Amino acid sequence: MKKPKIYDNYPLWIVILANILMLAVYVAGAYIMFALSIITGFLYVAYLVILELYFLKEGCIHCCYFGKLCAFGKGAVAAMFFKEGDPEKFCERELGFKDFIPQVLVVLIPLIVGTAILISRGFNLLILIAMIYPVFSWFAVNPFLYGKLACLHCKQGSICCPALKFFIKEKGGNKEE
C-alpha cells in the first residue's frame, strides 16, 4: 500500500473544508441555544470560544504545526495569539475520555435542549435538522474528515499524538508500517 503524503502545511482546500464542517456543528448548536433564549445562545457561543482558545493554548502551541496550516489551520491561528510552546509537552500528554467531555458537550447540550424545545414547543424542522447534523457529523463526517483528510497526512501524528494514542491505542501515530 502506498504511504500517505505527510503535509508540512495542509492544502488550503482541506483547511477550508474542515472548518466549514466544524463550524456547521457550532452553528447548529448555536441555532438551538439561541432558539431557547438569547442568554443561552450567548453562553453557548462563549463556551465555544473558550474551548477553542483552550485547544490553541494547551495543544496547538506545542504541535509541530505551530505557525503553519494543520488540517484545521489552528497552528497558524495559535501563532497569532500565543508564543510557541515545547513540542515535548505535546508528546507527554495522556488523553482519557474525560479530556473529550468538553467537545462532547458541544453536541450533547444542544441535543438535549433541542429535544426539550421540540417537546415543549412542538415540531420545528430547523431545530430537528440542527439536532441531526452534529450527530451525523460524529458518525459520518468526522471519520472521513479525520480518517482520510486530517490524521492520515499529519506530521505530528507520525511523531506522537495523544489523540491517536487514545483512539487507536497505539504508540506513535500514523500506521505507516
Write a short abstract of this structure.
The protein is an all-alpha fold. Helix content is 69%, strand content 0%.
Describe the protein.
By secondary structure, the protein is mainly α. The protein has a domain at 12-83 and 100-134. The protein contains eight helices and no strands. The protein has helices at 12-36, 38-58, 74-81, 87-92, 97-121, 125-150, 155-159, 162-168. Helix 1 (12-36) packs antiparallel against helix 2, helix 1 runs antiparallel to helix 6 (125-150) and helix 5 (97-121) runs antiparallel to helix 6 (125-150). The protein is globular, with a radius of gyration of 18 Å. The N and C termini lie close together (10 Å). The model is unreliable at 170-177 (pLDDT under 50).
Kindly list the characteristics that best describe this protein:
single chain, 177 residues, mainly alpha, 8 helices, 0% strand, globular
pLDDT below 50 for ≥5 consecutive residues: which ranges?
170-177
Indicate the overall shape: globular
For the sheet with most strands, the description reads: none
Number of helical elements = 8
What's the helix-strand series? HHHHHHHH
Give the structural class. Answer: mainly alpha
The helix content is: 55-70%
Q: What is the rounded Rg?
A: 18 Å
The amount of beta strand, in percent, is under 5%
Query: How far apart are the termini?
Result: 10 Å
